Amino acid sequence: MQKKLRPTIIGILASFLFFAGNVAQAETLNIAFPSGLKELFKYEFNVIELALENSDADMSLNVTEIDGLSGSRLVEMLKAGETDVIFGGYSPQRNESLLQINIPMTRGMLGHRVFMTHRDNLPALRQVKTLTDLKQFCIGAGSDWPDADIMEQNGFCVDRAPRNRLWDMLENKRFPLLTRAAHEAFRELPDLQRKYPDLVLVPDISLVYKFDFFIYVRKGNTQLQQLLTTGLERAYASGAFMKNFERDPSISHALAELSRLPYTFTIRNPILDPTTKNIDPKYWHGNLEFDTHQNRSSCPKNKITCPEQEGINMRYITDPSRFYLIAAKTPAFSVPLSY
């Protein structure tokens, strides 16, 4: 009897040791992030989790929150090996010094911008009908936000400041406009208004350019770059990515509100490198081709109204394959001041 049991016991022990060894081999992917902001970026962290879940690696994400952490400091930490991965808005500097995972995290929603303002500025802002009108107002932006470079190179007045000072400055009328991605603004405004009751969204206006968050890893870490790329590609193929995108309450709210805005101005993004500019359109919401037809001085008159034709009332409509900007006859949306 004892001889018969021995092989069975040995087999069980071998299986246990094999399983325990596999658990021990599970790796941790470390990411540093500014303290207090993790919940606001829950969607973006879910995207990284999706990449890991759909990869061949056994990895879990570990988030370390650090007080006062800036975007530039994050890049330095990644270069020094103090963190494994970061995400941030595309910039030439990040793209050149790090490895970028070339799948936009929010499908370009980060480039769909709306504006916060002090309610005292609303009468003047309601007169904005053209891109030239909009450029008469200075826009607040974070010191190291790539958006500031994009807007400056498109002829906007931009007032840069550390992120944590922007809302105080807006409340004190240091500048009339503060730029936020639409899904960020709708998510943040209720909490902001508890501290800054005079802060409101500017009715009717949005600004659109090709821009997004990307995941970055250290230069030379091609294995991790490929792992995350493969994970996101599989998440798209299985439908998991779009399910996460469509179910995010901030994004779904923003998409609904943006579709009703009467004045949507598109501008080019001059800081994109050729690789990022030519990312497969299926990864961008609406497949908008910001750097082709819509920004030429002569657009096809039968399908697209050129953004350069200022003074036109524009809105999105859907066609089976893409979104087009066309002339709209009537305004369709205003944001409640108490929103």
From TrEMBL:
SUPFAM superfamilies per UniProt: Periplasmic binding protein-like II
Alphabetically ordered keywords of this record: Signal
Signal peptide: 1-26
Record's protein name: Solute-binding protein family 3/N-terminal domain-containing protein
